Structures are given as C-alpha cells and as structure tokens.
Amino acid sequence: MTVDVKVKFPYRYDEVGSLLRQESLKKAREDFKTGKIDVDALHQVEDKEVQRIINKQVDLGYKAVTDGEFRRSWWHLDFFDGLKGAHFFEPEKGFIFHGLETRKGGVKITDKLAYNPEHPFFADFTKFQATVPEGITAK
C-alpha cells in the first residue's frame, strides 16, 4: 500500500542574508572609520536600517526575515575577527577578483582559534531578534 503524504512548509524561499546597504549606512561606516562619528552614532544608523529592512520583509509577507547583515562590514571577516586568536587587519592591497581589486581586508591568525562567548554576533542577533514582530522568525 502506498500512502501519499503532503508536507506544507511554513515558507519556501532562499535568501542569502546579506542585503544591499543604503547610502546612509555606507556613509555612517565611513564616518566611523575616519572618526567623524562614534560607535553609538553608528549603532543608531544600523538600528534604523535594520528596522527598515525588517519592516520591508514583513510587508512583503516573509515569515522569516534577516537583518541584512547591516551590522557587519564583511560577512566572513567580521565573524573570524570575533573569535579568540584572530584579528582583522587592512593590507596594502585588496584581492584581485575578475580583474578588479576588492576592498582591503584580511584576518591574521595570532593564536589558536577559540570560541569567544563575547563574540559581537551574539549581541547583534539578540538585538535583532528582539525587534522582529511576533510570529516572524529571525534568521
């Protein structure tokens, strides 16, 4: 005997997670890097942009939303930089990719890599999760 089983998933779509940053966020990151604004001012811009992108995804009917990785500069380097034993650095040149030079950035391994309970991603996700409406999943 064959039984047909249909499973209805709560949602089905692919989202990489990293969304295009608004000019206001790009400018705030540059201003922070050059010392024109402090970390609190940067976080205010990030908070505003994260809330904006959450609202847009909810308005589009998404049941799971992302913060767009707006609190990160690099999706991978920021992660490594938060681990014990690794530190971000800015080399003289970026990587050459398809004939173009990328932004300058790298990670130096300075010790044995280890878990960091104070990794900034934990606080960032907690903050993000607290802003997501009830019934919506933070991803």
UniProtKB/TrEMBL annotation:
It comes from the Bacteria. This is Putative methionine synthase. It comes from Secundilactobacillus oryzae JCM 18671.
